[in-house]
Design brief:
Length: 364
């Protein structure tokens, strides 16, 4: 019987096992996690068949998946090199950086064990086993590091994870770290810095932060990500992130100068070129995160008006990802933004709310 061992049953690990379970119900899945509640949840919800302490379960596995923070993945790869493993086992990881991970896997590979560095480019700022979903990665890119791409193990791993419905991309570790440094790691640093600087600016004026508008919230959404995971990512891609940060600071210096010199042309072209590039991404091409589906509902400024909408959805078992009140003031009607995980939920909600005479809009 094929056995899969997975260490780290958080958002990414539990999403992978959910997808593996879907396609390979007969496979035996052994899990490991430092959090007791996570292990109990995974057992209760049949995400795993067994839990073992630390890497013990790896010894009988045909596939070993490391899905903890990157620093832990690195330690585990070194430890696995000193453990008795099945000869044909395929070891992989999901860590957000790859050069240091690949380096840590060398002793294991020198022993003849196959290691394929992996990285699904989807996720969320949510963490933990309860946030995982079998369809988290649907249509997202999944990087595989091309150490020896002719090895049939690549296909075996893709087959194991077929139910994730990802788009596989072979890439070198160096290229990978440069790419994700720029499009994922640097933005996380910028978002966190902006939130911290804004918080400090408003230290004596608590109202300021509460006034945060849509733009601030959009650009800082990822500042809610897990500090343990992101500390580990920055430390394992430090040289690249420092270079990219310098280029970014340079860009800020340029626009600062243009503002100081009141250089209208330069200021305009700063926004114009950014708009041009950003517009090319298109709303449906963001790629990183699963799409969310929004509805905007006009709501009267009346006590209980929001509750009646949420109750209607709950009664019909439609789950919401997020709820947000926009533009509500005492004298005017407000707009309620409801966010759904799936288009079918949005459609159901739209139908129900329209039947109840609410004015419901989509803005996509
Ligand atoms: N969150 C995201 O959007 C993405 C994360 N990644 C990578 O995936 C990995 C996991 O991230 P998430 O699942 O998001 O984090 P998470 O915090 O949801 O899950 C990590 C899990 O690992 C467990 N853990 C931590 N140290 C452990 C140890 N020593 N032994 C056993 N279990 C341990 C934690 O208890 C937790 O359940 C990280 O390397 C991250 O860089 C990759 C793609 C996307
Ligand atoms: O869009 C982002 O950067 C995310 O927040 C999701 C994410 C986080 C970490 C990764 O390694 C890959 C994707």
């Amino acid at each position: 019987m094929t056995t899969v061992f997975i260490k780290g049953l958080g958002l990414i690990g539990s999403s992978l096992v959910r997808a593996i379970r879907k396609q390979h119900p007969a496979y035996k899945i052994i899990g490991c996690d430092t959090e007791k509640e996570t292990c109990s949840y995974a057992l209760e919800h049949k995400l795993v068949d067994h839990i073992t302490a630390d890497l013990i379960g790896a010894q009988t596995a045909d596939f070993i998946i490391l899905a903890t923070p990157v620093d832990e993945i690195i330690k585990d790869l070194r430890q696995l090199a000193n453990m008795p493993l099945k000869r044909d086992v395929i070891v992989t990881d999901v860590g957000s950086t790859k050069q240091k991970v690949l380096k840590a896997a060398l002793p294991l590979q020198n022993k003849g064990i196959t290691f394929i560095g992996g990285h699904p480019m989807a996720g969320s700022h949510k963490t933990g086993v309860t946030a995982g979903r079998a369809d988290l990665f649907e249509n997202a890119f999944y990087f595989m590091i091309k150490t020896n791409a002719a090895d049939p193990a690549y296909l075996q791993l893709q087959e194991l994870l077929q139910a994730t419905k990802v788009k596989w991309l072979l890439i070198s570790a160096e290229e990978h770290d440069q790419l994700v440094g720029q499009i994922s790691h640097l933005p996380h640093v910028i978002a966190a810095a902006l939130v911290n600087q804004t918080q400090n600016f408003f230290a004596d004026s608590p109202l300021g932060m509460r006034m945060a508008a849509g733009g601030f919230k959009s650009i800082t959404r990822i500042a809610s990500s897990d500090p343990t995971m992101w500390s580990s990512i920055l430390q394992s891609n430090s040289a690249i992130i420092v270079q990219q940060l310098e280029r970014y600071i340079n860009e800020l210096n340029k626009i600062e100068q243009a503002i100081v010199q009141n250089d209208h042309e330069q200021i305009f072209s700063f926004f114009e070129s950014a708009k041009h590039s950003r517009d090319k991404l298109g709303p449906k091409k963001l790629g990183q995160l699963p799409d969310f589906f929004d509805l905007f509902i006009n709501i009267p400024d009346r006590i209980g008006s929001i509750a009646s909408i949420t109750q209607l959805l709950a009664f019909n078992k439609i789950s919401l990802v997020n709820i947000h009140i926009l533009e509500i003031r005492e004298d005017i009607d407000g707009v309620l933004q409801l966010t759904f995980m799936r288009e079918e939920d949005r459609l159901k909600a739209e139908k129900l709310l329209t039947q109840k005479n609410y004015v419901v809009l989509r803005r996509d």
